[in-house]
Design a protein that fits this description.
Elements (H helix, E strand, L loop, with lengths): L13 H12 L7 H12 L3 H11 L9 H13 L3 H8 L3 H17 L12
Length: about 120
């Protein structure tokens, strides 16, 4: 499976992040929208909508070669704080690659000067 480079002209939406998450784990997150959204939030700690909004803030800060799958893997790390061996087993990526992308995104997040709070009526 070949990943495509995400460009500025791409429309990033919630469905794109959900399908990227399904590719990371090699299976769909669920059948109903409710189950998919619940599992996405459980895996990554935020909704797919928040991922889209954070991705848009980060795209000016990071190189074009980084893909949403790298961002989702860093979210998975921040949510679970698992060791490298566990994350590598979950995502099918070797430890060195995993570590590199995780810390690129964490450092990019730390450099953002804007802190936004997203309030959702769905708890």
């Amino acid at each position: 499976m070949v990943d495509r480079i995400v460009t500025d002209s791409d429309l990033m939406d919630c469905d794109f992040f959900i399908s990227t998450a399904a590719k990371i784990f090699g299976r769909p997150l669920g059948r109903s929208t409710h189950v998919i959204n619940r599992r996405f939030r459980a895996l990554f700690g935020v909704s797919s909508k928040v991922c889209v909004q954070v991705w848009e803030l980060l795209t000016n800060k990071i190189l074009q070669l980084f893909l949403p799958k790298h961002f989702l893997r860093s979210r998975l790390f921040m949510k679970s704080y698992s060791n490298e061996a566990v994350l590598s087993a979950m995502t099918g990526v070797d430890k060195k690659t995993q570590r590199y992308y995780i810390w690129v995104f964490i450092k990019s997040l730390a450099r953002l000067r804007i802190v936004r709070f997203f309030i959702s009526s769905n708890h």
